Amino acid sequence: MDFNQIIGHEKVIEILKKSIKTNKISHAYLFQGEEGIGKKKLSYAFSKALLCLSEGEKPCGDCPSCKRFESGNNPDFFHIEPEKNLIKIEHINKIQKEMSTAPLNSNKKVMLIEDAHLMNKESTNKLLKTLEEPPSFAHIILTSSQAYKLLPTILSRVQTINFFPVPKEKIKNLLIEHYGKDEKQAKFITEFTKGAIGKSINLAKSDLLFQRREEVLKLLNDLIKGDKTKVFNSMDFFNNNEKDIHEILDIMIYYFRDLLLYKKLPNSPLIINQDKISLLNEHSFMAFNKINDIILNIMETKDIIRKNVNFQLSLEAMLLNI
């Protein structure tokens, strides 16, 4: 992974490249931004560049360090990921141990902690001590989509790099040119992910999102027509896709948002379900207030599910109000 393989984030890349060129590299960074926005790819490219042995452009891709990085076998790079949505103190102990010894292959060591907001209290306190007195050769990169959960004492010891959505036109063109999506599919994915390029690419690699959308819209059509028995018949679908429930609820939110738009501006380019205009027209008899209430109800259900309240009961109550 090199900087030139990253789509978007030009300002971030410029900042990181300049820090390497001028040798003004922080001992710790926080890459913060929405999930799937590109933090992981760029953290890999930056780590590779930090460890590169070339005297010229970094990463060079040819030195022993770069080659070992690409093979996933660089002894000076350590990647910590959450296990069961938790980063435990054992993970941070591992980093401390590695930081106590000199680099083997490069003149630096890089520690990447992904989703740092998932550290528990013990691991957070342990990391704080690590950040207070890091060895000169060590660099720590934290990534997070929920940086507000990190302690202020952590935030005060890192250089924060903010990641913003990639321009939607760039993502749309990428999906059309490299992932075989047509114009309407690419537009839907791009709008659905709000410019999160990693998430866009993952969704474009299969037709699962569109298959789920068809299932969801069929259910909504039945409910709007008054067939409430479908609420209970649909529970297998929701239970089988529980881990992706927020994506499914977002499909509903975007559809009803489009319905509001369609009622006001039927030819609006802002409608993302462009291939569902006939269905939107069929449902356009619904009152504005009713559609607004449905959207608010779905958003409230998302919050309830995040709080681990009864999953099936929450969904049934929401669907019965459509």
Classify the secondary structure makeup into a structural class.
alpha/beta
Give the count of structural domains: 3
What's the overall average pLDDT, rounded? Answer: 93
Share of residues in strands: 5-15%
Rg, rounded, reads 23 Å
Distance between the termini: 46 Å
| Number of H/I helices | 16
CATH class of the largest domain: Alpha Beta
Helix content class: 40-55%
- Backbone shape: elongated
| Sequence stretches where pLDDT stays below 50 over 5 or more residues | none
**What is the element string, with H for helices and E for strands?**
HEHHEHEHEHEHHHHHHHHHH
CATH topology name of the largest domain: Rossmann fold
Biggest sheet, open or closed, and with what strands and sense?
A: 5 strands, parallel
How many strands?
5
Strand order of the largest sheet: 2-3-4-1-5
Q: Considering the protein shown, what is the CATH homologous superfamily of the largest domain?
A: P-loop containing nucleotide triphosphate hydrolases
Account of the protein in words:
The chain is α/β, with parallel strands linked by helices and 322 residues long. The protein has three domains: 3-162, P-loop containing nucleotide triphosphate hydrolases (Rossmann fold, 3-Layer(aba) Sandwich), CATH 3.40.50.300; 168-205; 207-320, Zinc Finger, Delta Prime, domain 3. The protein is built from 16 helices and five strands. It has helices at 10-21, 39-51, 64-70, 89-99, 121-132, 152-155, 168-179, 183-193, 197-204, 208-224, 229-233, 235-240, 245-264, 277-282, 288-306, 311-320; strands at residues 28-32, 77-80, 109-113, 138-144, 159-162. Strands 2-3-4-1-5 form a five-stranded parallel sheet, sandwiched between helices. Strand 2, helix 4 and strand 3 form a beta-alpha-beta unit. Helix 4 (89-99) runs parallel beside helix 5 (121-132) and helix 15 packs antiparallel against helix 16. The longest helix is centred in the C-terminal third of the chain and has 20 residues, at 245-264. The protein is elongated. The relative contact order is 0.10. This is DNA polymerase III subunit delta'. It comes from Tissierella creatinophila DSM 6911. Residues 210-322 form the DNA polymerase III delta subunit C-terminal domain. It holds the Pfam family DNA_pol3_delta2. One of its GO terms (molecular function) is 3'-5' exonuclease activity.
